[in-house]
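Progress note, project year one: complex with 2-acetamido-2-deoxy-beta-D-glucopyranose.
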Amino acid sequence: MLVALLLWSSLHIANSDATALPTDEHGDYNGSDLIEWINSHPEGYVHPSLRIGRRIPGDSSSIIGTFVSSAPGAKPIEKDEVIATIPWDRMIGPGDEYSPTTFGSCQAIRNLASELKLGDNSQYAPYVRYLLTQSIEAMPGEWSKAGQMFLRQITADGELPPLDADWFEAAEYKNVWLNACRGSDDSIERLAYYLTSNRDEDTLMIPIYDMMNHSNDPDKLNTLSYKPNKVGDSFVFKASRRINPSEEIFNCYNRCHACSTHFREECETYSFRGTPDIFAHYGFVEEIPHYWWFDRNEGHQVTEIEFCLEKIAATGELSVSWINSTPGDHDKAFFVKHLERLKQIESNKEGLEGQLVQPDNENATSQEKMSRLEWEACWKYHNALITAIDAAIVSLNRIRRGNATAKLIVHDEYDIGDEL
Ligand SMILES: *[C@@H]1O[C@H](CO)[C@@H](O)[C@H](O)[C@H]1NC(C)=O
Ligand SMILES: *[C@@H]1O[C@H](CO)[C@@H](O)[C@H](O)[C@H]1NC(C)=O
Ligand SMILES: *[C@@H]1O[C@H](CO)[C@@H](O)[C@H](O)[C@H]1NC(C)=O
Ligand SMILES: *[C@@H]1O[C@H](CO)[C@@H](O)[C@H](O)[C@H]1NC(C)=O
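Model obtained:
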């Protein structure tokens, strides 16, 4: 919380000096400065039908993202049309160190931190001003102590994913930024780290593109992106199907994971994250289809269990496809144990709420209570675990009874590379 407060106050100062962001008639950011800044570059282009704002303008509970405008006369964005071309010098990245096959870069985070510190004096000022308004408090690594301890209770101290090293006590921030990159622990550098962790495309921070929300639902996903092949090239994203007025424009943050239909084709990005990793890095549970992985630790031996969870459109039933091998009896016992444990936690939900959640009418005073946002995120993840584990057990039971054959996906080693 201390960090969050420090960050908040420093952003406050940065903002009061800075030019105000353009807003729609309801006071929500509309991105017109960014669009103008991209279009003012000879190679830059933003489709005239693109709208930045809330899903329902004026409704502060609806999410902020990118949409096709429904203003009178606005046209759909047709399949294969370019949604935006972002020139090289409108992106913040590792500079001359850029390579399309490098998936993480300390230099990129350092460059972003320098630009954020320059604020209005940055050559990327329209983008920097927007980035400075972003908050990191929804990221599990930045949650209150109470929120983090409760998520650890749900994951049985790391027996269930996500890995502690990806989030617990800001472990990844410390490992990557403070240790590997030798960064400093100040609020702007911390923001720069999390912004790259959340929003970059491999090593590039790309204005407008980074405002698209995530969907891995093949019926919703409607874009494809093309990274620069070399230093100096532009970044392009296109419509993968016709996108009608008022529809949301989505990106997929894990297009290339093991359950994706894009696997290997169209997979030029470092986006292999599974459902638990998406939760650890963004604080939300993605929609089904899911990719789940579990490491069952038995003494010094670790068994990897992986599966895809899909919904059968016709029946709404969940379907499990096992990756590489079908689990055995010990794996099933592991699932049964955790399912019971998770249900046990849920049976005391009300008691836990009183004990752990910051009352709405009280200001945050200690790390011993968590925000409502953290509480709700924990339960969404808890429910996702129950749904996935339950479906896994049902699938294994059917296979054991001989009433189903295992649906098995066999992948060769998929090397996710080294992030740094
Ligand atoms: C966005 O905000 C600016 C500044 O408030 C305003 O001039 C412009 O008309 C707005 N554009 C849209 C599409 O709402
Ligand atoms: C959608 O994207 C906006 C802009 O990047 C972000 O503020 C918001 O948290 C995202 N929502 C979800 C559900 O990911
Ligand atoms: C909470 O903080 C605000 C702003 O600092 C203050 O005005 C308000 O009185 C505080 N409320 C309580 C219940 O402490
Ligand atoms: C076997 O599977 C079929 C099709 O899903 C189902 O109709 C049937 O009831 C199942 N039988 C048993 C014994 O579970």
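The first helix runs from residue 2 to 17.
The domain at 32-409 is CATH 3.90.1410.10 (set domain protein methyltransferase, domain 1).
No further modelling is planned for this target in the current period.
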